[in-house]
Amino acid sequence: MLKDPPLLTVRRMWQRPDAFTIGRFKGVQTGQAVDAMDGRGALDAAIKAIDLANATFLGTALPCETGPNDNLAIVAAIALAQPGDVIMAASEGFTQSAVVGDNVTTIAKSRGVAAIVIDGMARDIAGIVPVGLPVFARGITPNSCVRSGPGRVGLPIVIGGVAVEAGDLVIGDADGVVVLPRKHLHTILPSVEEVLAAEAATQGKIRNGFTNIGGIEELLASDRVRYVD
Length: 229
Known about the structure:
Layout: E1 8-10, H1 19-23, H2 30-35, E2 48-49, E3 57-65, H3 72-80, E4 85-90, E5 98-100, H4 102-110, E6 115-118, E7 121-122, H5 125-131, E8 135-137, E9 139-140, E10 151-153, E11 157-159, E12 162-164, E13 169-173, E14 176-180, H6 185-207, H7 216-220
Parallel strand pairs: 1-10, 3-4, 4-6, 5-7, 6-8, 7-9
Antiparallel strand pairs: 2-8, 3-10, 3-13, 11-12, 13-14
């Protein structure tokens, strides 16, 4: 006969990026981070900020796995979080009940959590918005969940189609959420700087009337295009 699983499985000791490294990503937009990682790294497009006016954040991933219709692991992750952590909660994309509401959000804010990102649902939007903590979810529903476990905290998860490990860097804004693996930050940062420089140069040209993005004018004049009129 199988034993009942523990209510929570928790990994408490893991490495966070140092403050200097995190600070070098301040102000980087999600699109710029994605461009620095060969066009990938963003969570499922359905996961968006509850309040677009409060969507920007930068922090360290604290992953947890709740399973559907349960938020015990989220509450535990918040209790274990350090200032600047981002609660990344995998709830199997369950949309029939909310796993985060205004009370959980308020407690997370008081503990210095940078954001909450869930691949399920939230509720109590009238209470969440005034808290001022970025919350990302698939949507809103009044239905409530249980808090019975089992769940996991601090262990690798997949959320919104993206693998996340404790200590990864997470960037969020109105466009969505992007995960930057901690073990690759030393190579991602130079790529981000290249993207920022190239983007600034391109936007400067556009302001001065440049229209030939990607060599489109040469392509349109070549034999690679067939005109039918």
